[in-house]
């Protein structure tokens, strides 16, 4: 049988993809991240499905449950928040399943940064202002950053930065980016994106840290820094330009 790594989306239960919901409805076993995945999604599982909260489980325990379900002949839904392609800890699970000979499929989901951009009502890539988005985080004691991926280095690009897992360290983020972006650079923090308790903070590198601390935001948030967040005077894209040559319909 198959393990399905399913992106549950950023928080709102109705932001799971149609494919993800259909896979979930067909799986007799579901492992989910209880602290992050909306409980409403579990209602999509079959009534007799075995539901396993992985919030307090380690990698060995999670792998054992996936292999067990496979050996029992059940398809398995492994629900992760956001999209499995970034900051999801899916890579090590897939590596374990490869070693065990268990087949799997990845079903993408709506990532947190996309939900945050929607909350801000902003396109992150704007013609002549910014065409690059960098998804990153900051070094912590448990997980250091690879060489060359520190904020000081990434900040030299001037690209829009989207930081996950960094709200608790917002002072550090601001200090490392100020020399490259300037105090007037637009910045935003979106916590609990797409959920009923969503919180949106807008400002600049000069004041965003104070807003984050005043609001008590320490987790489940993304920090965005870059000029496209406040871009107004920019050239229209070539995509819909009247000057663009378009093929004639048959």
Topology:
Elements: E1 3-7, H1 18-26, E2 29-32, E3 50-53, H2 59-71, E4 76-80, H3 90-100, E5 104-107, H4 112-120, E6 133-136, H5 151-155, E7 160-164, H6 170-181, E8 186-191, E9 199-204, H7 208-215, E10 221-225
Helix pairs in contact: 2-3
Pfam family, one: TP_methylase
Pathway: Cofactor biosynthesis; adenosylcobalamin biosynthesis
Domain Tetrapyrrole methylase: 2-208
Could you please describe the fold and organization of this structure?
It is a single chain. With 250 residues, the protein is an alpha/beta fold. It has two domains: 3-107, Cobalt-precorrin-4 Transmethylase, domain 1, CATH 3.40.1010.10; 112-230, 2-Layer Sandwich (Methyltransferase, Cobalt-precorrin-4 Transmethylase, Domain 2), CATH 3.30.950. It is 27% helix and 19% strand. It contains seven helices and ten strands. The protein has helices spanning 18-26, 59-71, 90-100, 112-120, 151-155, 170-181, 208-215; strands at residues 3-7, 29-32, 50-53, 76-80, 104-107, 133-136, 160-164, 186-191, 199-204, 221-225. It has a five-stranded parallel β-sheet with strand order 3-2-4-1-5, sandwiched between helices. The chain has a five-stranded mixed β-sheet with strand order 6-7-10-8-9, sandwiched between helices. A hairpin with a 7-residue loop joins strand 8 and strand 9 (199-204). The radius of gyration is 21 Å and the shape is globular. The model has no long low-confidence stretch (mean pLDDT 93).
